[in-house]
C-alpha cells in the first residue's frame, strides 16, 4: 500500500513535467534507454521504477524529494551549477546550451518576462564584448582559481566552444519578449575600480586597459540606444532599464512564462543557484518587482536622468 501511494506521487510528478502521455513516454524512453513497452509497464505500475531510475529522472528533470514522496517538508530546493567559464566541462557546456535553448523557446510566448537586478554587469551583456568577457573570466580566475601562479589578463584564454556559446547567449537573451534590468547606481564605478586595481599590480597592461575601455564605451553606447528606444534594436523586444537608489547586494534574476519559470541567484561570480519551485519563483517575482519602488526608470521616460546617468558613466570610463 505504501509503495502504491509512493508510485502515485512519483508518477504525478512525472506528468507535471510532461502533461501529455505521449511526450512523457518518449522522454522516459530517451532518458532511461528503455523500450516503449517497458515504459508503459512502469507507468501502469506493473513494474516499479528502480532506485537508479528514480534518481536519474529526479536529477535530469529537477524533481524534488517532496514531489517524489508527496511529503511537504517545508523546504524549498535550490540546485547549484558550478561553472568553470575558462575551461568548461561538457556538462557545464550542456548547461549553458540548455539555457540558450530555453530562451529561444520562450520567444514564442509574449507574456514571458526576464528580470535581472545586479551590482555587477550581467553576464548576458558582457558575453557580447570580447575583452569585457575576458576580464570577467580573468577576475574569476584571480579570485577563485586553483592555479598557484597568477595568470595575467593577456594570457586568459577562452575556449572556442565557450566563445561561440557566449555569442549565442548574447543574442538569445534578446529574444525574450520582455526584459527588465535594475542596475546599482555604482555598477560602472565598481568595474572601473577593479580594472584600475589589476592595472596597478601589472596584471593588466596599458594596451589591455585600452581594449577593455573601448568595449566599455561600446557597451555604454549600445545600452544608451536601448534605453532611448525601450527595446533591443535587433529584435524590437521590450527592455526597461532602471537605476536603483539603494545598494544592491548581489546579482539575481528570474525568468517567468506561463509555461515554466525559474529564478537564479548568482554567487561568487561562478555559481548559479536556481530553483523551479513555483512558490519561490512567485515570491522572487514579487520581491524583485517591489525593487522598482526605489529605482528610477531611465529607458524611454525621464530623458534628463537617462542623459545624466550615461554621461557620468562615459566620463568615468574615459578616465581609464
How many H/I helical runs? 13
- Measured by DSSP, the beta-strand proportion falls in 5-15%
Low-confidence stretches: none
* Cα separation of the termini: 70 Å
Main sheet summary: 8 strands, mixed
**Overall pLDDT level:** 83
Number of domains: 2
Spatially, the strands of the biggest sheet line up as 1-7-6-5-2-3-4-8
Structural class: alpha+beta
Q: State the share of residues found in helices, binned by percent.
A: 40-55%
Question: What's the total number of strands?
Answer: 8
The backbone outline, from C-alpha atoms, is globular
What does this structure look like?
Helix content is 52%, strand content 14%. Strands 1-7-6-5-2-3-4-8 form an eight-stranded mixed sheet, with helices on one face. It is an alpha+beta fold and 320 residues long. Helix 11 runs antiparallel to helix 13. 27% of the residues are buried. The chain folds into two domains: 68 residues; 240 residues, no CATH class. The radius of gyration is 22 Å and the shape is globular. Strand 5 and strand 6 form a beta hairpin.
Amino acid at each position: 500500500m505504501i509503495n502504491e501511494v509512493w508510485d502515485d506521487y512519483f508518477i504525478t510528478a512525472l506528468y507535471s513535467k510532461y502533461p501529455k502521455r505521449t511526450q512523457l513516454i518518449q522522454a522516459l524512453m530517451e532518458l532511461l534507454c528503455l523500450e516503449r513497452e517497458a515504459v508503459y509497464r512502469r507507468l501502469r505500475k506493473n513494474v516499479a521504477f528502480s532506485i537508479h531510475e528514480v534518481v536519474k529522472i529526479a536529477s535530469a528533470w529537477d524533481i524534488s524529494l517532496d514531489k517524489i514522496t508527496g511529503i511537504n517538508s517545508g523546504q524549498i530546493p535550490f540546485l547549484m551549477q558550478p561553472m568553470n567559464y575558462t575551461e568548461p566541462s561538457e556538462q557545464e557546456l550542456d548547461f549553458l546550451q540548455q539555457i540558450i535553448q530555453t530562451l529561444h523557446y520562450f520567444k514564442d510566448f509574449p507574456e514571458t518576462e526576464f528580470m535581472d537586478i545586479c551590482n555587477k554587469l550581467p553576464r548576458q551583456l558582457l558575453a557580447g564584448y570580447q575583452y569585457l568577457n575576458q576580464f570577467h573570466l580573468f577576475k574569476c580566475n584571480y579570485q577563485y582559481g586553483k592555479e598557484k601562479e597568477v595568470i595575467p589578463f593577456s594570457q586568459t584564454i577562452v575556449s572556442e566552444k565557450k566563445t561561440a556559446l557566449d555569442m549565442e547567449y548574447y543574442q538569445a537573451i534578446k529574444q525574450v519578449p520582455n526584459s527588465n534590468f535594475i542596475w546599482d547606481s555604482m555598477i560602472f564605478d565598481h568595474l572601473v575600480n577593479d580594472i584600475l586595481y589589476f592595472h596597478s599590480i601589472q596584471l593588466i597592461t596599458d594596451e589591455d586597459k585600452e581594449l577593455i575601455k573601448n568595449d566599455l564605451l561600446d557597451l555604454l553606447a549600445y545600452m544608451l540606444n536601448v534605453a532611448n528606444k525601450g527595446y533591443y534594436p535587433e529584435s524590437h523586444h521590450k527592455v526597461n532599464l532602471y537605476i536603483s537608489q539603494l545598494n544592491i547586494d548581489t546579482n539575481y534574476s528570474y525568468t517567468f512564462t506561463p509555461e515554466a519559470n525559474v529564478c537564479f541567484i548568482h554567487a561568487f561570480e561562478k555559481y548559479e543557484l536556481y530553483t523551479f519551485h513555483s512558490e519561490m519563483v512567485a515570491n522572487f517575482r514579487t520581491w524583485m518587482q517591489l525593487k522598482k519602488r526605489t529605482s528610477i526608470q531611465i529607458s524611454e521616460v525621464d530623458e534628463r536622468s537617462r542623459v545624466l546617468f550615461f554621461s557620468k558613466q562615459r566620463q568615468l570610463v574615459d578616465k581609464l
